[in-house]
Structure formats: C-alpha cells, structure tokens
From TrEMBL:
PANTHER family: 3-HYDROXY-3-METHYLGLUTARYL COENZYME A SYNTHASE, HYDROXYMETHYLGLUTARYL-COA SYNTHASE
Classification via Pfam families: HMG_CoA_synt_C (PF08540)
Native organism: Vitis vinifera
Protein name per UniProt: Hydroxymethylglutaryl-coenzyme A synthase C-terminal domain-containing protein
Signal peptide: none
This protein's record includes keyword tRNA-binding: no
InterPro entries: HMG_CoA_synt_C_dom, Thiolase-like
S-adenosyl-L-methionine recorded as keyword: no
Domain Hydroxymethylglutaryl-coenzyme A synthase C-terminal: 49-224
Keywords, ordered alphabetically: Membrane, Transferase, Transmembrane, Transmembrane helix
Chain coiled-coil ranges: none
Amino acid sequence: MCCSCNIFYPPSFSLETQLLLCVFVFVEFIWCTLVRFTVYCFCLISLVDEAAREKLAPFSALSKDESYQSRDLETATQQEAKHLYDAKVQPTTLLPKQVGNMYTASLYAAFASLLHNKNDSLAGKRVIMFSYGSGLTATMFSFQLQNGQHPFSLLNIAMVMNVSEKLKSRLEFPPEKFVKTLKLMEHRYGAKAFVMSKDCSLLASGTYYLTEVDSMYRRFYAKKPGDGDNTDPMSTC
Ligand SMILES: *[C@@H]1O[C@H](CO)[C@@H](O)[C@H](O)[C@H]1NC(C)=O
Ligand SMILES: *[C@@H]1O[C@H](CO)[C@@H](O)[C@H](O)[C@H]1NC(C)=O
C-alpha cells in the first residue's frame, strides 16, 4: 500500500516497540509536511493497526502519485492516526510550536519537549527521532531512555532544562525591532571583521555569545557569568 514504508521501517525493526514514542519535527513548508506526514501516518497505522488497515483498504488501489494528491486519503489517514498522534507526537511539539523553526536544532527541541512533558514516565521507553528537510535527506534513529545516576536522572534533566520557566522568561519585541535585527543579521551573514554590540543584558546567565569575527573569519566568544562561575576569564559583561 505504501511504497516508502521500507525506507522508514526496515522489517527487522519491532514496530510495536518503535512506536512507543515518536519525535517528529516539522521542518518544511506546511503542505509538503502534511502530505509526507500523511504518508508517514499511513505507513504506521496500515502496518500496526488492524482496524485502520480495514478503513484504509479502499485506498489501496491508488497509485503512489494518486496517493500524494488524494484529499480523502489524507483526511481518512489523519482521523485514523489521531489517537497515535496525540499520544506519541503531540508531547514533542511544545518547543517547535513556541519557538518556531530552529532548523538543525528542531529535532532536539522536539526531544527536549518530550523530556519536559513526559519527565516522569520515560524510563525504559524507546524514542524514534525522525527529521527531514527541503533536500532529499532524511534521518531516523532511535534509542531507549534509562534513568542515569544523579544528576543524570530523567527528572533532573527535565528540571535543569527548566523549559516552562525559559518559555515564560521570553521577551516581547515589536515587529520593527525584529525586522531591524534581521537586517543586521543579513548584513553580517558570511561577513568578516566586525565586532558585536557589547550589550548582553538580554542574555540569560551562563550563555555563550559571539563577540567578534576577525579579518580571517575567526570567531571569538565569551560567556555571560552564570550562578557560581564568576571566575571565567573570557567574561566581558
Ligand atoms: C513534568 O511533566 C509535567 C506534566 O507534563 C509538567 O507539568 C512538569 O512541569 C514537568 N516537570 C519538569 C521538571 O519538566
Ligand atoms: C528555573 O528558572 C527559574 C526562573 O529563571 C529559576 O528561578 C529556577 O531556579 C530555575 N530552576 C532550576 C531547577 O534551574
């Protein structure tokens, strides 16, 4: 029914286990993402869920190209996948939704969201990390989570990440200021021989930040002092 299934799931994978949790990132423009996501869900449910397989059977006659275009298939698939989506994907969407596209960091932001939202129920669970972008490349890997010894217990990691507080401490800027900042970034993109503004009052304690790019494109960084590390010789603010 779905020709790309074997790309995502080699037959040797145990689907029931792999499906326990699934980190999914939206990194591409939305239509494309939805279509691919539909196919993705389609693959999952048509393989693991007998009832869903029956409901989607009428679409099995569609060719691969027709299946990409079919709105009915998209709707039916999303309906069938909703409970799986809510249980396995939705908890990973907090930071991607709140912060927006972070490109390379997106997958890990999704993982951080999962650690935050499911902090007390993750030990022993398997996570699938799957990302794709505008090119032809996609990556999928999986791992199993275990509680490490303190400070590496899953709950402590979630506490240190402090996701809710970090989201709450975001600052609001008017669009004009945002545009101005983007213009500056555009101007400096790939540029050399510039020094950054010294003002780092908006950065959180402990943040590493760029101070300068010299004429040989060497980048220099400093760290804003954090609690308990005021001895950093690189600190400049
Ligand atoms: C743990 O998960 C619960 C439920 O999602 C959430 O309310 C809480 O803030 C999380 N705790 C941490 C430390 O992330
Ligand atoms: C989380 O952030 C808040 C506000 O910045 C801070 O008061 C609190 O100590 C932080 N918690 C942890 C565990 O770092």
